[in-house]
Amino acid sequence: MSPASRTAAEPEVAALLAEIAAGAAERERDDVSPFEQVAAVARAGLGALSLPADEGGRGASVREVLAFVVDLAEADPIVAHVLRTHYSQVLGFLRQPDPEVRRRWVEEIRAGKVFGNAISETGPSAAGGHEFDTRLDEVDGRLVLNGTKYYSTGTLYADWIAVAARVPEDRVATVMVPADRAGVDVVDDWDGMGQGRTGTGTTRFTDVAVEPGDVLGARPRLEPRAPGDVAFLQLYLHALVAGILRSVATDAAGVVRSRSRTFEHAPVPQAVDDPILQETVGRLSATAWIAESAVLTAADAIDAVMQAWAKGEPTEELLLAASLAHVSVKVHLDRVGPEAATGLFDVGGASASSRARNLDRHWRNIRTITLHNPASYKAAAIGRHLISGDPLPVNGYF
């Protein structure tokens, strides 16, 4: 039995997930963007999971949010990945110290608005670092945003875009920009072998007018992000992998059931009775269960950080524990995830490679997600910490 979310157990949510799942393989095979499916999640109020119940949400913890993400990724990992920045941004709004600012954005969340991101830049600076060429300047008494961002996952589907931009005194501001504002150009140019319709493309800002109230604040450029933010964003990726692994196990069982013949030298005449195939399916199911359990256990560690932060209590030791947890999950899943997606083909004959079945999407999606940052560097960071007591790196990947 899977450690599934209580949200998915609700009949209306279960029906929505089933509807999203019904066309997921075909959408991906035919390169169709899931605009309607993302909108359906928002209309159902599922983008507001983290909001307190008295503010129109469900008061969901990090564990509960990521449990739902696993469910959604099982249905369609493209839709789930699109909403990664959205769920992170919602958590940020809930920490907003200004009650009026908080109220404004909570209203947008309740209204079903979707938030995307424009954070990453390319160039000579290191990935995950603190260098930004995008700037927010005051020109003739008004704020103007200029710059180019890459890997803007979800922005193609967003109503609002969260942008990281340099401001004077070597600070970085978080700026909220309507996706349809003049000067905003969202380019659908992501051509990855997996997660192909996540809108992970280029976003350009050319003399975009910014309202003062849309600037959420600024921090010193080298100052770490708020406790738990990075851990949540990174663990979210592993929740996607856990959901995909569920689909791997389900599809493997389906392939075995669908086989009308087997090999002459197989141990039994019917594939469904073949102990070799049964073992393979069992191992794939076990891998999916362990992956999900690991993600949810790491989510508990992030919840502990956020709860301590909200109470004004120290978070350093808790943050280290959360970082080690999500990093460890990645190091493990990056190895067993692609292996399981490959193992899916071991239960079928040559017909399992049919493009019509599109079973290779699981491997392509998992492998693309794992490339977000190398597990080798993270494993080495864990080793240095355990051997020599070196601190973990402080950047967007830890």
From TrEMBL:
Q: Which reaction does it catalyse?
A: dibenzothiophene 5-oxide + FMNH2 + O2 = dibenzothiophene 5,5-dioxide + FMN + H2O + H(+); dibenzothiophene + FMNH2 + O2 = dibenzothiophene 5-oxide + FMN + H2O + H(+); dibenzothiophene + 2 FMNH2 + 2 O2 = dibenzothiophene 5,5-dioxide + 2 FMN + 2 H2O + 2 H(+)
Keyword line:
Flavoprotein, FMN, Monooxygenase, Nucleotide-binding, Oxidoreductase
Pathway entry: Sulfur metabolism; dibenzothiophene degradation
Q: Where does the Acyl-CoA oxidase/dehydrogenase middle domain lie?
A: 133-208
Task: Tell me where it mainly resides.
Answer: cytoplasm
> Where, per UniProt, does this protein localize?
Cytoplasm
Which residue ranges does the record assign to the Acyl-CoA dehydrogenase/oxidase N-terminal domain? 18-112
Q: Does the keyword Calcium apply?
A: no
* Domain Acyl-CoA dehydrogenase C-terminal: start-end pairs: 239-373
Q: Return the EC number.
A: 1.14.14.21
Q: Which Pfam families match?
A: Acyl-CoA_dh_2, Acyl-CoA_dh_M, Acyl-CoA_dh_N
InterPro entries from the UniProt entry: Acyl-CoA_DH_C, Acyl-CoA_Oxase/DH_mid-dom, Acyl-CoA_Oxase/DH_mid-dom_sf, AcylCo_DH-like_C, AcylCoA_DH/ox_N, AcylCoA_DH/ox_N_sf, AcylCoA_DH/oxidase_NM_dom_sf
Write down the superkingdom of origin.
Answer: Bacteria
Answer whether the UniProt record assigns the keyword Acetylation to this protein.
no
Report the family membership: Belongs to the DszC flavin monooxygenase family.
List the PANTHER family.
Answer: ACYL-COA DEHYDROGENASE (PTHR43884), ISOVALERYL-COA DEHYDROGENASE, MITOCHONDRIAL-RELATED (PTHR43884:SF12)
Listed name of the protein:
Dibenzothiophene monooxygenase
